[in-house]
Amino acid sequence: MPWSRTPSYQAITLLRRHSRECRGLETREYLVAVERRMVELIDLERREAQDRAAAIHQAAE
Asked: What domain of life does the native source organism fall in (predicted)?
């Protein structure tokens, strides 16, 4: 897997984009927005891992 496809690199890229979108917010609002986005990214990563595991399991059958 190329480094640009690793979940951690993608998360950093998405957070940078999200940060630019939130420039006008107060600090507390910004931190809440970043925390919400991190939770979304973690959920996405978990779903992707489950999908890969299911695909591997199906291929093994």
From this structure: Bacteria
Report the predicted TM-score, pTM, of the whole model to 2 decimal places: 0.54
Going by C-alpha positions, the residue among 35, 42, 43, 1 that lies closest to residue 18 is: 35
pLDDT at 2 over 80: no
Among residues 6, 10, 34, which one has the least CA distance to residue 20?
34
Q: How many domains does the chain have?
A: 1
Which tokens hold the place of 60? 């093994």
**Can you give the residue range of the structural domain that contains 27?**
3-60
Residue 36: pLDDT above 80? yes
